[in-house]
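Hi R.,

As promised, here are both runs. First protein below:
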Amino acid sequence: MPEQDLPPYERRVSPVERMFRWSPFSIVTMVARIRGDVSEEMLRHAVSRVQRRHPNLRVRIREDAQGDPWFTSEGAGEIPISVLPRESDDGWIQVHQEACRVPFDFELRPAIRFLLLQSPGLCELIILCHHILCDGLSLAYLARDLMLYLGDAAREMESLPDPIP
Protein backbone atom coordinates (compact mmCIF):
# COMPACT_ATOMS: atom_id res chain seq x y z
CA MET A 1 0.00 0.00 0.00
CA PRO A 2 1.57 3.36 -1.02
CA GLU A 3 2.15 5.80 1.83
CA GLN A 4 -0.57 8.16 0.60
CA ASP A 5 -3.04 5.25 0.92
CA LEU A 6 -2.37 4.85 4.64
CA PRO A 7 -5.33 5.99 6.71
CA PRO A 8 -4.78 9.05 8.88
CA TYR A 9 -4.12 8.24 12.49
CA GLU A 10 -4.99 10.37 15.47
CA ARG A 11 -5.58 9.70 19.15
CA ARG A 12 -5.28 11.58 22.41
CA VAL A 13 -2.03 11.09 24.35
CA SER A 14 -2.93 9.10 27.49
CA PRO A 15 -2.13 10.37 31.01
CA VAL A 16 0.69 7.81 31.39
CA GLU A 17 2.16 8.81 28.01
CA ARG A 18 1.98 12.47 29.08
CA MET A 19 4.35 11.68 31.96
CA PHE A 20 6.91 10.39 29.46
CA ARG A 21 6.46 13.46 27.26
CA TRP A 22 7.85 15.71 29.97
CA SER A 23 10.76 13.39 30.56
CA PRO A 24 12.69 14.28 27.40
CA PHE A 25 15.49 11.81 28.01
CA SER A 26 13.31 8.80 28.70
CA ILE A 27 14.89 6.86 25.87
CA VAL A 28 14.61 3.19 25.01
CA THR A 29 17.52 1.98 22.88
CA MET A 30 18.74 -1.09 21.10
CA VAL A 31 22.04 -1.77 19.39
CA ALA A 32 22.47 -4.51 16.80
CA ARG A 33 25.79 -5.64 15.38
CA ILE A 34 25.25 -6.74 11.80
CA ARG A 35 27.67 -8.91 9.86
CA GLY A 36 27.67 -7.82 6.27
CA ASP A 37 27.26 -4.55 4.47
CA VAL A 38 24.25 -2.33 5.08
CA SER A 39 23.96 0.75 2.88
CA GLU A 40 22.11 3.91 3.75
CA GLU A 41 19.66 3.12 0.96
CA MET A 42 18.99 -0.36 2.39
CA LEU A 43 18.38 1.10 5.85
CA ARG A 44 16.09 3.85 4.55
CA HIS A 45 14.04 1.29 2.64
CA ALA A 46 13.78 -1.00 5.69
CA VAL A 47 12.82 1.92 7.97
CA SER A 48 10.15 2.98 5.48
CA ARG A 49 8.75 -0.56 5.43
CA VAL A 50 8.78 -0.96 9.22
CA GLN A 51 7.17 2.48 9.56
CA ARG A 52 4.27 1.24 7.46
CA ARG A 53 3.87 -1.78 9.75
CA HIS A 54 4.06 0.10 13.07
CA PRO A 55 1.52 2.99 13.33
CA ASN A 56 3.38 4.79 16.15
CA LEU A 57 6.30 5.34 13.78
CA ARG A 58 4.13 7.60 11.63
CA VAL A 59 3.08 10.14 14.26
CA ARG A 60 4.09 13.44 15.77
CA ILE A 61 2.45 15.24 18.69
CA ARG A 62 0.18 18.24 18.25
CA GLU A 63 -1.72 20.20 20.85
CA ASP A 64 -5.39 21.07 20.46
CA ALA A 65 -6.95 24.42 21.38
CA GLN A 66 -7.13 23.35 25.05
CA GLY A 67 -3.45 22.41 25.12
CA ASP A 68 -4.14 18.66 25.20
CA PRO A 69 -1.57 16.59 23.29
CA TRP A 70 -2.62 14.27 20.47
CA PHE A 71 -0.71 11.80 18.34
CA THR A 72 -1.35 12.61 14.70
CA SER A 73 -0.01 11.26 11.44
CA GLU A 74 -0.86 14.55 9.73
CA GLY A 75 2.29 16.45 8.82
CA ALA A 76 4.65 14.02 10.56
CA GLY A 77 8.16 14.48 9.17
CA GLU A 78 10.70 11.84 8.26
CA ILE A 79 12.41 9.64 10.81
CA PRO A 80 16.03 10.78 11.16
CA ILE A 81 18.63 8.34 9.86
CA SER A 82 22.34 9.07 10.25
CA VAL A 83 25.19 7.08 8.76
CA LEU A 84 28.65 7.36 10.35
CA PRO A 85 31.92 5.50 9.89
CA ARG A 86 32.43 2.61 12.29
CA GLU A 87 35.79 3.21 13.94
CA SER A 88 36.14 0.41 16.52
CA ASP A 89 34.32 -2.44 18.22
CA ASP A 90 33.24 -0.21 21.09
CA GLY A 91 32.95 3.11 19.22
CA TRP A 92 29.17 2.72 19.23
CA ILE A 93 29.17 3.40 22.99
CA GLN A 94 30.36 7.00 22.56
CA VAL A 95 28.03 7.56 19.60
CA HIS A 96 25.13 6.20 21.66
CA GLN A 97 25.94 8.42 24.65
CA GLU A 98 26.07 11.52 22.47
CA ALA A 99 22.84 10.59 20.63
CA CYS A 100 21.00 10.18 23.93
CA ARG A 101 21.66 13.84 24.71
CA VAL A 102 19.86 15.06 21.58
CA PRO A 103 16.19 15.83 22.33
CA PHE A 104 13.42 14.55 20.07
CA ASP A 105 11.29 16.94 17.98
CA PHE A 106 7.90 15.64 19.17
CA GLU A 107 5.97 18.30 17.27
CA LEU A 108 7.74 17.67 13.96
CA ARG A 109 8.41 13.95 13.54
CA PRO A 110 8.17 10.53 15.17
CA ALA A 111 10.22 10.31 18.38
CA ILE A 112 12.65 7.73 17.03
CA ARG A 113 15.97 7.87 15.18
CA PHE A 114 18.40 5.41 13.63
CA LEU A 115 22.19 5.60 13.51
CA LEU A 116 24.18 3.25 11.31
CA LEU A 117 27.89 2.85 12.00
CA GLN A 118 29.42 1.37 8.83
CA SER A 119 32.60 -0.48 8.09
CA PRO A 120 33.28 -3.10 5.40
CA GLY A 121 31.59 -6.32 6.44
CA LEU A 122 30.41 -5.13 9.87
CA CYS A 123 27.95 -2.47 11.06
CA GLU A 124 26.24 -1.40 14.25
CA LEU A 125 22.68 -0.15 14.09
CA ILE A 126 21.62 2.04 17.00
CA ILE A 127 17.89 2.62 17.45
CA LEU A 128 16.86 5.36 19.88
CA CYS A 129 13.16 5.73 20.61
CA HIS A 130 11.42 7.91 23.17
CA HIS A 131 9.41 5.96 25.72
CA ILE A 132 6.26 7.87 24.67
CA LEU A 133 6.24 5.69 21.52
CA CYS A 134 7.46 2.33 22.76
CA ASP A 135 8.80 0.21 25.57
CA GLY A 136 11.64 -2.30 25.44
CA LEU A 137 9.54 -5.20 24.17
CA SER A 138 7.97 -3.05 21.44
CA LEU A 139 11.43 -1.93 20.39
CA ALA A 140 12.59 -5.55 20.25
CA TYR A 141 9.71 -6.39 17.88
CA LEU A 142 10.47 -3.32 15.79
CA ALA A 143 14.17 -4.28 15.59
CA ARG A 144 13.19 -7.83 14.57
CA ASP A 145 10.98 -6.49 11.79
CA LEU A 146 13.70 -4.10 10.66
CA MET A 147 16.22 -6.95 10.46
CA LEU A 148 13.75 -9.04 8.45
CA TYR A 149 13.32 -6.18 5.96
CA LEU A 150 17.09 -5.64 5.76
CA GLY A 151 17.51 -9.34 4.97
CA ASP A 152 14.66 -9.45 2.45
CA ALA A 153 13.65 -6.06 1.04
CA ALA A 154 10.64 -7.54 -0.78
CA ARG A 155 9.25 -9.31 2.30
CA GLU A 156 5.56 -8.69 2.97
CA MET A 157 4.15 -8.23 6.47
CA GLU A 158 0.75 -7.04 7.62
CA SER A 159 0.37 -3.65 9.25
CA LEU A 160 -0.26 -3.83 12.96
CA PRO A 161 -3.53 -2.43 14.37
CA ASP A 162 -3.56 1.09 15.74
CA PRO A 163 -2.40 1.17 19.37
CA ILE A 164 -4.94 1.48 22.14
CA PRO A 165 -3.79 3.67 25.03
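And here is the second one, sequence first, then its C-alpha coordinates:
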Amino acid sequence: MANLRWGQKMEKKRIIEKMKQLAELIHYDPGDITHLANAMCVNVLDNGNTSNKEYYNGSLATLGDTVLKMIITEKLYLEGKDRGDITINKSDIEKNTTLHLKTLKYNIQSFAYNDQYFFDEAPQHLQLPNPGHDIYIEAIIGAIYLDRGLKYCKNWIESSELVSI
Protein backbone atom coordinates (compact mmCIF):
# COMPACT_ATOMS: atom_id res chain seq x y z
CA MET A 1 0.00 0.00 0.00
CA ALA A 2 1.31 3.46 -0.89
CA ASN A 3 2.10 5.99 1.81
CA LEU A 4 -0.67 8.48 2.32
CA ARG A 5 -0.65 11.64 4.33
CA TRP A 6 -4.03 11.16 5.95
CA GLY A 7 -5.55 14.38 7.13
CA GLN A 8 -5.15 15.34 10.74
CA LYS A 9 -8.89 15.81 11.16
CA MET A 10 -10.20 14.03 8.07
CA GLU A 11 -11.31 10.43 8.61
CA LYS A 12 -9.45 7.86 6.53
CA LYS A 13 -12.71 6.00 5.86
CA ARG A 14 -14.30 9.17 4.47
CA ILE A 15 -11.35 9.82 2.16
CA ILE A 16 -11.43 6.24 0.86
CA GLU A 17 -15.18 6.42 0.19
CA LYS A 18 -14.76 9.68 -1.73
CA MET A 19 -11.88 8.18 -3.76
CA LYS A 20 -14.05 5.18 -4.64
CA GLN A 21 -16.65 7.62 -5.99
CA LEU A 22 -13.97 9.38 -8.03
CA ALA A 23 -12.65 6.06 -9.38
CA GLU A 24 -16.16 5.18 -10.53
CA LEU A 25 -16.64 8.60 -12.13
CA ILE A 26 -13.41 8.32 -14.14
CA HIS A 27 -13.86 4.62 -14.97
CA TYR A 28 -10.75 3.50 -13.12
CA ASP A 29 -10.42 0.18 -11.29
CA PRO A 30 -7.83 0.84 -8.57
CA GLY A 31 -5.63 -1.84 -7.12
CA ASP A 32 -4.49 0.46 -4.30
CA ILE A 33 -6.87 3.37 -3.71
CA THR A 34 -4.25 5.32 -1.74
CA HIS A 35 -2.53 6.32 -4.98
CA LEU A 36 -5.72 8.08 -6.06
CA ALA A 37 -6.05 9.64 -2.61
CA ASN A 38 -2.49 10.96 -2.96
CA ALA A 39 -3.43 12.49 -6.31
CA MET A 40 -6.24 14.46 -4.72
CA CYS A 41 -4.44 15.51 -1.52
CA VAL A 42 -3.65 19.23 -1.60
CA ASN A 43 -2.07 19.72 1.77
CA VAL A 44 0.47 22.51 1.49
CA LEU A 45 4.06 21.39 1.86
CA ASP A 46 6.37 23.58 3.86
CA ASN A 47 9.13 24.25 1.35
CA GLY A 48 10.20 27.55 2.88
CA ASN A 49 8.86 29.48 -0.11
CA THR A 50 5.85 31.52 0.96
CA SER A 51 5.31 33.09 -2.48
CA ASN A 52 4.86 29.80 -4.34
CA LYS A 53 2.83 27.09 -2.61
CA GLU A 54 3.74 23.45 -3.18
CA TYR A 55 1.00 20.89 -2.76
CA TYR A 56 1.34 17.28 -1.67
CA ASN A 57 0.08 16.04 -5.07
CA GLY A 58 2.56 18.21 -7.01
CA SER A 59 5.23 15.56 -7.49
CA LEU A 60 2.60 13.05 -8.57
CA ALA A 61 1.28 15.59 -11.08
CA THR A 62 4.81 15.98 -12.47
CA LEU A 63 5.03 12.21 -12.92
CA GLY A 64 1.60 12.13 -14.54
CA ASP A 65 2.53 14.96 -16.90
CA THR A 66 5.58 13.00 -18.06
CA VAL A 67 3.59 9.79 -18.55
CA LEU A 68 0.89 11.66 -20.47
CA LYS A 69 3.46 13.30 -22.76
CA MET A 70 5.08 9.95 -23.49
CA ILE A 71 1.78 8.24 -24.30
CA ILE A 72 0.62 11.10 -26.53
CA THR A 73 3.99 11.23 -28.31
CA GLU A 74 4.01 7.47 -28.93
CA LYS A 75 0.48 7.56 -30.34
CA LEU A 76 1.28 10.46 -32.68
CA TYR A 77 4.56 8.82 -33.75
CA LEU A 78 2.77 5.57 -34.58
CA GLU A 79 0.27 7.58 -36.64
CA GLY A 80 3.22 8.72 -38.77
CA LYS A 81 3.38 12.32 -37.57
CA ASP A 82 6.67 14.15 -37.99
CA ARG A 83 8.47 15.96 -35.18
CA GLY A 84 6.79 19.31 -35.78
CA ASP A 85 3.30 17.79 -35.96
CA ILE A 86 3.96 15.76 -32.81
CA THR A 87 5.03 18.89 -30.94
CA ILE A 88 2.00 20.92 -32.07
CA ASN A 89 -0.56 18.16 -31.52
CA LYS A 90 0.93 17.12 -28.17
CA SER A 91 0.83 20.65 -26.82
CA ASP A 92 -2.82 21.05 -27.82
CA ILE A 93 -3.82 17.81 -26.08
CA GLU A 94 -1.90 18.25 -22.84
CA LYS A 95 -2.31 21.99 -22.45
CA ASN A 96 -3.02 22.85 -18.82
CA THR A 97 -6.03 24.97 -19.73
CA THR A 98 -7.50 22.06 -21.73
CA LEU A 99 -7.06 19.68 -18.81
CA HIS A 100 -8.40 22.27 -16.38
CA LEU A 101 -11.60 22.63 -18.43
CA LYS A 102 -12.05 18.84 -18.18
CA THR A 103 -11.48 19.08 -14.42
CA LEU A 104 -14.31 21.59 -14.21
CA LYS A 105 -16.60 19.71 -16.62
CA TYR A 106 -16.38 16.51 -14.58
CA ASN A 107 -16.14 18.33 -11.22
CA ILE A 108 -12.89 16.52 -10.41
CA GLN A 109 -11.84 19.30 -8.02
CA SER A 110 -14.70 18.35 -5.67
CA PHE A 111 -12.67 15.24 -4.73
CA ALA A 112 -9.64 17.30 -3.67
CA TYR A 113 -9.01 17.49 0.05
CA ASN A 114 -6.62 18.76 2.67
CA ASP A 115 -6.24 17.97 6.36
CA GLN A 116 -9.68 19.32 7.20
CA TYR A 117 -11.94 19.68 4.17
CA PHE A 118 -12.99 18.41 0.81
CA PHE A 119 -13.02 21.09 -1.87
CA ASP A 120 -16.74 21.91 -1.75
CA GLU A 121 -16.87 21.93 2.05
CA ALA A 122 -14.06 24.40 2.77
CA PRO A 123 -15.07 27.83 4.04
CA GLN A 124 -14.46 30.66 1.56
CA HIS A 125 -11.33 31.88 3.34
CA LEU A 126 -9.85 28.34 3.28
CA GLN A 127 -10.68 27.37 -0.31
CA LEU A 128 -8.63 24.55 -1.79
CA PRO A 129 -6.69 25.23 -4.98
CA ASN A 130 -8.45 25.29 -8.33
CA PRO A 131 -6.13 27.41 -10.46
CA GLY A 132 -6.53 28.01 -14.19
CA HIS A 133 -4.07 25.20 -14.84
CA ASP A 134 -4.59 21.58 -13.97
CA ILE A 135 -3.15 20.01 -10.83
CA TYR A 136 -5.60 17.13 -10.60
CA ILE A 137 -5.81 15.19 -13.89
CA GLU A 138 -2.04 14.93 -14.20
CA ALA A 139 -1.80 13.72 -10.60
CA ILE A 140 -4.54 11.16 -11.32
CA ILE A 141 -2.56 9.91 -14.32
CA GLY A 142 0.54 9.60 -12.11
CA ALA A 143 -1.50 7.66 -9.55
CA ILE A 144 -2.90 5.28 -12.16
CA TYR A 145 0.58 4.71 -13.58
CA LEU A 146 2.02 3.89 -10.13
CA ASP A 147 -0.93 1.71 -9.19
CA ARG A 148 -1.58 -0.27 -12.35
CA GLY A 149 1.47 0.23 -14.59
CA LEU A 150 2.10 1.75 -17.98
CA LYS A 151 -0.08 -0.55 -20.11
CA TYR A 152 -3.18 -0.02 -17.95
CA CYS A 153 -2.48 3.72 -17.75
CA LYS A 154 -2.11 3.96 -21.53
CA ASN A 155 -5.40 2.11 -22.08
CA TRP A 156 -7.12 4.32 -19.51
CA ILE A 157 -5.84 7.52 -21.13
CA GLU A 158 -6.83 6.38 -24.62
CA SER A 159 -10.37 5.55 -23.46
CA SER A 160 -10.82 8.35 -20.95
CA GLU A 161 -13.08 11.33 -21.50
CA LEU A 162 -10.76 13.36 -19.27
CA VAL A 163 -7.94 13.27 -21.82
CA SER A 164 -8.72 13.49 -25.53
CA ILE A 165 -6.00 11.90 -27.61
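A quick note on the second one: The CA atoms of residues 63 and 77 lie 21 Å apart. Let me know what you think.

Best,
J.
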